[in-house]
Design brief:
- This protein is an alpha/beta fold and about 775 residues long.
- The chain contains 21 helices and 27 strands.
- α1 (about 25-45) links the parallel β2 (about 20) and β3 (about 50-55).
- The relative contact order is 0.09.
- Bound molecules: 5'-O-[(L-methionyl)-sulphamoyl]adenosine.
Length: about 775
């Protein structure tokens, strides 16, 4: 039966498919957890649901990352895709299918889609010269050398013969479609941005690449590979069976397409709300019903991401507080569609407040009292009083409120409303104190009150548990057993959420044994989570150094065997990940943490721990005179920056005989990773007379460095110049911009004028100085 309208008994929802250039972190887990909660609720409403997730494995970014790791792209993708899937399983996520874009079923579907678009006259061949952002895998309309307007990383000039999609033909159709389908894009901010993007005019889109090979060959012209976004977006249909001649696949596609929800991160809305419907319209395939964009999980005001080095792993939270705690926190704390901050402190506070002391404690009190006073059997209630009437009314109101809030993806408000009921039930219990018989109450009256109060409270808990099941599946399953309701998975199969109503807990029901749900998190929970992150980082660092030892010429940024150390804990200094994506580390100024000045301290404010060992602490600012032999400069001038407050008025050292003390060992020297880089972009920074912002190419990646040489070097003269940088210096922020390394220069008397280190012979980019 083909799906016809939005009230269909079939529901199809998807997560974005995750790039396999970096391991999963909480930001990825967020979208997948949201989808899991929706899928669980839909299934428990008796709706035939298909929940798809997967990995995005082709393209230049993955090809380069694999090369850096010394692996084939396929082997590399297998490894990270396996990590995503294993994590989703550990988190108990109930996806129905996991698509990998390197699977034959996907390749077949993408080629079918490409051929269909060509056959219908929407593809032509042309040549293209323009800027490409490898990190976003996106064509961007900026001049050569300019950063990507979306992510701020350096763009590359690409000049290729490509296939083009006639996107321009869809400008009006898309605008009409948005007009007729106001619910297509959410939130409103996304809708407004997308509409204004389309209104500003659509150019035809290059949908093939011919300068690398890691992709799906264009059918009939195999020296081209399909543009990775066309490849990736098609996953939503290929996973269902589009492109297959097998009747079972065709039936699945007919049943579930069009998708009800594509859940995506807000930064990829243009691809989903403009390109994807245009491709589908051109191919004659129905467009999805809605695109819902989630905001970003932030840490330290910046998007949590591998390249910023501020990630937290979902496993850390799972191991200490459990997967349910993570689900609850993400859905309760962050209004869907908005950015939200993550912190271990806030997590533990929510956990203790709402789960341990709130719901968990309520369940434990009631179940224990039913065991204590009624031998574990739900008593027959005496006639209700005003107090029971009020709780029943509140419960009924909550049932009515919760469903639409959840279905609008307003999880935060839905949970708030449900937790008001938790608090009210708790208050009802306390007010009626069934554990205490006042002297003026007969035993019979007290037994009657106990029966009434405990059966009423237990019923409220049953309703709360049913409603919260999609968000706290593990806890709900335990409580369901404790309430003598059996297996909640069976209840879900029987569509128990279609008729949640007061009165389901029958007198005479035998309760299960009480068991702890959310043990209170002690003071050390935050430290334990931080330690787990540290431990994980340490292992990554060790893996990185083994890798470095095994392949001395390989850059330390090898992935995935040598992942980068994120900060020692999320509440401390952010550290640049050596596994940084090509071009990473050049955040938009708007993404930066608040202003810091050029004489920033060694560690970020609030930093408690030293930076991980693969990075050399940035004890000096962006430029210093560094000798290339292993003898230190005179003690008095050691590590003196050129433009800090401390050396104002202190003439730098004359190039005299250095002191022969404070030797360092060769191992100490080996910690400093000096590499050859080429300046791609050099520019002044407004209101910072001494700083230049450089974008440099290390051959294996590009990054941003801030250098205090503006008074001595004209920026334009630096472009193309090969310099030497300290590549493993912990990043630091200056003027709101991140500096990822330090360049080397001699410091000349009398005023410390820098002279950049360089080479007479030609040297390849990324070459290490040893
Ligand atoms: N491969 C593309 C998506 C293709 S879909 C056809 C991609 N991959 S990604 O791995 O970079 O991001 C996948 C999703 O994770 C995006 O929706 C992105 O917004 C989300 N997140 C990654 N970091 C995140 C946060 N810090 N916070 C919330 N979501 C985040 O883009």
């Amino acid at each position: 039966m083909a799906k016809t309208d939005s009230n269909s008994a079939h529901f199809y929802l998807t997560t974005p498919i995750y790039y396999v250039n970096a391991r999963p972190h909480l930001g990825h887990a967020y979208s997948t957890i949201v989808c899991d909660a929706i899928a669980r609720r839909k299934r428990a409403m008796g709706i035939d649901t298909w929940f798809l997730t997967g990995t995005d494995e082709h393209g230049q970014k993955i090809e380069r990352s694999a090369k850096l790791a010394g692996r084939t792209p396929q082997d590399f993708a297998d490894h990270i895709a396996g990590e995503f899937r294993a994590l989703w399983d550990r988190l108990g996520l109930t996806y129905d299918d996991f698509i990998r874009t390197t699977e034959p079923r996907h390749k077949r579907g993408v080629q079918r889609l490409f051929a269909t678009l060509r056959d219908r006259g929407f593809i032509y061949k042309g040549s293209y010269t323009g800027q490409y952002c490898v990190s976003d895998e996106a064509w961007v309309d900026v001049p050569p050398g300019a950063p990507c307007p979306d992510c701020g990383r350096i763009t590359e000039t690409v000049s290729e013969e490509n296939y083009f999609f006639k996107l321009s033909a869809f400008e009006r159709k898309l605008l009409e479609f948005y007009e007729e389908n106001p619910g297509f894009m959410q939130p409103d901010s996304t809708r407004r941005e997308v509409i204004s993007f389309v209104r500003s005019g659509l150019k035809d889109l290059s949908i093939s690449r011919s300068s690398f090979t890691w992709g799906i060959p264009v059918p009939g012209d195999e020296k081209h590979v399909v543009y990775v976004w066309l490849d990736a977006l098609a996953n939503y249909i290929t996973a269902l069976g589009y492109g297959s001649d097998n009747p079972a696949d065709q039936a699945r596609f007919a049943k579930f397409w069009p998708a009800d929800i594509h859940l995506i991160g807000k930064e990829i809305s243009r691809f989903h709300c403009v390109y994807w419907p245009a491709f589908l319209m051109a191919a004659g395939i129905p467009v999805p019903r809605s695109i819902k964009a989630n905001g970003w999980l932030l840490f330290d005001q910046g998007k949590m991401s591998k390249s910023r080095g501020n990630i937290v792993r979902a496993d850390t939270v799972r191991e200490v507080l459990g997967a349910d705690a993570l689900r609850y926190f993400l859905l309760r704390e962050i209004p869907f569609g908005q950015d939200g901050n993550f912190s271990f402190d806030a997590l533990v506070q929510r956990y203790n407040g709402d789960l341990a002391n709130g719901y968990g404690n309520l369940v434990s009190r009631v179940v224990n009292m039913v065991h204590k006073y009624f031998g574990g059997t739900v008593p027959e209630s005496s006639p209700e009083t005003a107090a029971e009437f009020a709780l029943r009314e509140s419960t009924t109101r909550t049932i009515a409120e919760f469903a639409p809030l959840f279905d609008e993806l307003n999880f935060s408000e839905a949970l708030k409303s449900l937790w008001n009921l938790v608090a009210e039930t708790d208050g009802y219990l306390t007010a009626n104190a069934p554990w205490k018989r006042p002297a003026d109450r007969s035993e019979a009256d007290h037994a009657s009150l106990q029966a009434r109060v405990l059966s009423t409270a237990a019923e409220a808990i049953r309703v709360i548990t049913a409603l919260v099941y999609p968000i706290l599946p593990d806890a709900a399953s335990k409580v369901w057993q404790q309430l003598g309701q059996g297996d909640i998975a069976d209840a879900a199969k029987n569509a128990f959420l279609t008729n949640v109503a007061w009165g389901g807990l029958k007198p005479g029901t035998k309760l299960g044994e009480p068991a702890p749900l959310f043990p209170r998190a002690e003071k050390d929970a935050v430290t334990r989570m931080q330690n787990l992150e540290d431990e994980n980082n340490k292992n990554a660092v060790e893996a990185a150094s083994k890798q470095e030892g095994a392949k001395p010429e390989a850059p330390t940024s090898a992935l995935p065997v040598a992942p980068a150390p994120p900060p020692a804990s999320p509440s401390v200094n952010q550290v640049q990940d050596p596994s940084m994506k090509p071009g990473a580390g050049i955040p938009k100024p708007t993404e930066s943490t608040p202003h810091s000045n050029e004489t920033a301290p060694t560690q970020a404010p609030g930093s408690e721990k030293p930076v991980p060992t693969t990075h050399v602490s940035q004890v000096q600012p962006e430029l210093t005179s560094v000798r290339l032999d292993s003898a230190p400069p005179p003690a008095a001038s050691q590590h003196k920056p050129l433009d800090t407050q401390e050396n104002k008025g202190n003439p730098p050292e004359a190039p005299t005989q250095p002191a022969q003390t404070n030797h360092i060992s060769i191992d100490d020297f080996a910690k400093v990773e000096l590499r050859v880089a080429q300046v791609l972009v050099a520019e002044r920074i407004p209101k910072a007379d001494k700083l230049l912002r450089l974008e440099v190419d290390l051959g294996y990646e590009k990054r941003q460095i801030l250098a205090g040489i503006a008074q001595y070097y004209e920026p334009e003269k630096l472009i193309g110049r090969k310099i030497v940088i300290v590549a493993n210096l912990a990043p630091r922020k200056m003027r709101g911009l991140e500096s990822n390394g330090m360049l080397l220069a001699a410091s000349l008397p009398p005023d410390g004028a820098p002279v950049l280190a360089g080479f007479l012979e030609d040297v390849p980019l990324g070459a290490r100085l040893k």
